[in-house]
Structure formats: structure tokens, C-alpha cells
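Q: Give me the 3D complex with nicotinamide-adenine-dinucleotide.
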Amino acid sequence: YHVLLNNSLSSIKMLAILMIAYQWALIFCDLIHLIVMTNWLMLVSFYRMYFSVEMKSVAGNIALVTGAGHGIGKELAIQLSRLGAKVVCCDINKDWNDRTVDAIKGEAGHAWGYHCDVSNRDNVKEVMQMIRQEIGDIDLLFNNAGIMPCKPFLKHPPREIENLFAVNVLSHFWTLQEWLPVFMERGTGHVIALSSVAGLMGTSNLVPYCASKHAVRGLMEGLKEELRYDDRFPDIKLTCVYPFVVDTGLARKPRMRFPSFTPITSPERAAEIIIEGMRRNQYMISIPTKDFYLVKIVNILPLAIQHAVSDFLEAEVDEHE
Ligand SMILES: NC(=O)c1ccc[n+]([C@@H]2O[C@H](COP(=O)([O-])OP(=O)(O)OC[C@H]3O[C@@H](n4cnc5c(N)ncnc54)[C@H](O)[C@@H]3O)[C@@H](O)[C@H]2O)c1
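A: Here is the predicted complex, encoded as C-alpha cells.
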């Protein structure tokens, strides 16, 4: 009996050792695979810095742009139409929106205007359903509308903060809830969200705005991971945009010590960069491009150094109404 027991115990021990060895071998193989993949993907990334992915065509696509009445949204709508897309313009300001639609029609493009308050969930649902019935399913969703009250944190009334989050953040959820199921059913679609450099770092006088743009980044990051783990949707693309200052009047009092290093971009150029990046299926677009890397590098440095760099660059926004 004892011999039998001893034999069984040593067999179990042996099995346990083999199991552990197998698990370590598996981890080792995965690690080698990770190292080889990382090196290969680094090479591909370097190659892509000089030989970009070909731009996809948007001709015949239906593009929906929120906040199409002014600034970046207006330019996006006009330039998309010039590339042959049919554009659905949504804005809370009917006059501005109509002007964008007229500008597109004046160039023989296809555009429709919908008055929509993107911060209002019921209104978004109603307007998006109307668009589906009257025009059809969209291919490109530009979540662009945004506001930016600019003052010290304690001067923001609570209603203003709630409204800011409704316009800058919740609106993305409401449009996505309407269109993502359509994209998933069809297997294709592209969502482009406007965050900001303020979504990568903090800026004084913009505390709620910074929080809202960090939230947009978080939303897109989460969605990216969820779609990545579901291999049914390789052709649903996401793009998150991080502009610095674009000359639209949103940031009325930008202050910068080195304007040539951190230049103000025109809305025309910003839209051009966004559309080009979107057509290359880039996940992240920063305007100007170097800003993203600069912020990323500075963010890993000790806090005191981050402050010193920030003080040196003096890139801030002064309080304005
Ligand atoms: N301009 C910049 O310097 C800058 C920098 C970084 C990020 N961004 C982001 O880019 C986006 C566009 O900014 P912009 O400078 O073109 O702004 P803008 O003020 O020029 O235009 C915004 C448009 O959104 C519309 N809008 C506002 N609230 C709305 C609502 N509730 N429903 C529907 N439409 C609404 C406005 O009527 C306007 O037509 C925003 O999300 C903004 O946060 C801008």
C-alpha cells in the first residue's frame, strides 16, 4: 500500500512539475513572440513615417458632421463634399448650418441641413432617425460640436459645467448609440471625435473643458479596445483628433511665447489634416503633429520638470467670455 502511495505521489509531483514547466515555456514563447512583433511593428511604423498608407476614397460616402455651422466643422463639411462625399450638416445654430449647406450646394455638392442640439439626447435620437429615413445610413460620423467657456474653475456656474459636459461629451454617446449599431450591422463605418490637446494635459482657465476633452479621449480609447477584441468589426475605424489652437474664435485669447513653435492653425488647414488622417485610417491625429509627441514625452517626466517646461513655453488661454 505504501509503495503504491509513494509511486502515486511522485507521479503527481512529476505532473505538477511538468505543468509548471509547460506554463513557463508558454510564457517564454509568448514573450519571444511579443519581442519579435514589437520590433517588426516598430520597423513598420518607421516605414509608415515616410511611406504613408494610401488614402481611402470618400466619394459617394454619407458623412454626418455635428457643429457644421462654424469653424472646423464647417470646413470639414465643405472639404468632404469637395472629395465627393454627401454631407449631413447638424448644428444648433440654424442660420450658420444653412450657410454651410448653401456653400456646399453652391459648389454643386450634396448637402442636407438638420437643426439639432447634440446635447439633448431625445433631439439627437429624433434627428438621427429622420436622417436615416430621409437620406439613409451614414458612413462617416464626425463628432465635432463643442464649446469652451474659459475662466477660472470657481467662476463656472454649475449649469455651465453640466451643459459643457452635455455638449462636449454626452453628445458623442448619443450619436454613437444611434450609429454604431448601424456600422456593426453593416461591418463598416468610421467615427471621428474631436478631443483637444487639453484632453492630453491640463490648462488653467479650462478646467471643465480639459475634463471633457480627457473624457472624449477615454471614450474613444475604451471603444477602440472593445472593437479590437471583437474580430467581427475590423472595418469599423476610429479616429481621435487633438488640435492645439485653431483660429475659429473658440479660443479667443490664446497666449504663447513661441508662436512659430506652437502655431495657430487655420480651420481650413485643420480640416485638411483631419480628413487626410481619417482617409489613412489613423487612430490619432494631432494638430500640429509634433504636439502629441511633445506632450507624451513631457508627461513621463517628473512633475517639477513638466511645470518647468510648461512655464518656459507659456502656452495658455486667458479668461474670456
Ligand atoms: N478651435 C480650437 O482651437 C480647438 C482646439 C482644440 C479642439 N477643438 C475642438 O474642435 C471642435 C470644433 O471647434 P471649433 O473651434 O470649430 O468651434 P466653433 O465654435 O467654431 O464651432 C462649433 C460649432 O458647434 C456648434 N454647436 C455648439 N453647441 C452645439 C450643440 N449643442 N448642438 C449642435 N451644435 C452645437 C456651434 O453652433 C458651432 O457651429 C470642438 O469640439 C472643439 O472643442 C477646437
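A quick observation: The first helix runs from residue 2 to 50.
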